[in-house]
Design a protein that fits this description.
Helix content is 44%, strand content 13%. The protein is of the alpha/beta class. It has one domain: Aldolase class I (TIM Barrel), CATH 3.20.20.70. Strands 1-2-3-4-5-6-7-8 form an 8-stranded parallel β-barrel, surrounded by 5 helices. The protein starts with a strand and ends with a helix.
């Protein structure tokens, strides 16, 4: 399977009690797929996967599979515990997802051999395609291009979500996906196939044009740059959840240790939405 296009890292809707809001989740899956998203990543960083328990993740993936039709659902099954990652990968595969996203193990700082064995174990737990998730800003460890090339030799490791800002290049055997909204244009220019993105929760159709209209790609990037900055005014997904609630999508609050945007942060988000005439449209 080739991974490409707009894969939205979907926020996870919570109800007033901070529990998974199933009806709102199903509605959001359908909305995003009707508005620029080719597929969805569920229970990733933007989906607050670090504070979802296993049963919540499984239910989230189950809803995604049920509501997505033929669009791919990618389950974020990675953690810093290989045994746990393997179990989540196995169980997600049984639910009928189309692929898994496996983040670089964080906090315990494995060496090169440990990273290779980790990904071999995760890949062996499924017949599905595995997307590596390289995000050194959160995980400390950076998967070098040399190491990515070695990991690409694992049969069902097929893509990398690249969330660093330097030394971005296509690796033989791996689809290259932008992991930062503001690098989508750069990644596409470098031979990337698409991105796993946050702002597409809000402007999916506009960002889809960056793929469909390469001649306008950098102009579109410049037009959206202030929105990318506003949605990341503080730790993700605080900004994008604030924006979605302002736009009338009932995604609820966040789970501690994340807190809702304060008034100053909301003002930054609101101002950007107004500049793009999104609030008027809502």
């Amino acid at each position: 399977m080739t991974f490409g296009g707009i894969l939205t890292a979907m926020v996870t809707p919570f109800d007033a009690n901070g529990e998974l809001a199933e009806a709102a989740t199903a509605k959001l899956v359908r909305h995003l797929l009707e508005n620029g998203s080719d597929g969805l990543v569920l229970a990733g960083s933007t989906g607050e996967g670090s504070t979802l328990d296993d049963e919540e993740k499984l239910r989230l993936w189950e809803i995604g599979v049920a509501e997505s039709g033929e669009a791919p659902i990618v389950a974020a099954t990675g953690s810093n515990d290989t045994r746990h990652s393997v179990e989540l990968t196995r169980r997600a595969s049984e639910l009928g997802v189309d692929g898994v996203l496996a983040v670089t193990p964080y906090y315990n700082k494995p060496n090169r051999r440990g990273l290779i064995e980790h990904y071999r174990a995760v890949a062996a737990a499924t017949d599905l395609p595995v997307v590596l998730y390289n995000i050194p800003s959160r995980c400390v460890i950076d998967l070098s291009n040399e190491l990515l090339a070695e990991l690409a030799e694992i049969d069902n490791v097929v893509a990398v979500k690249q969330s660093r800002y330097e030394d971005i290049e296509a690796i033989h055997g791996l689809d290259l996906l932008a992991g930062n909204d503001d690098t989508l244009a750069e990644v596409l220019d470098a031979g990337g196939t698409g991105g796993i993105l946050v702002s597409t929760n809000v402007v999916g159709a506009e960002m889809r044009r960056m793929i469909d209209e390469p001649e306008n790609r950098h102009q579109l990037h410049e037009e959206l740059a202030d929105l990318f900055e506003a949605l990341f005014v503080t730790a993700n997904p605080i900004g994008v959840k604030a924006a979605m609630n302002m736009l009338g999508y009932d995604v609820g609050g966040l789970r501690l240790p994340l807190v809702e945007a304060d008034e100053e942060e909301k003002a930054v988000v609101r101002a950007s939405l107004e500049r793009h005439q999104l609030l008027a449209a809502a």
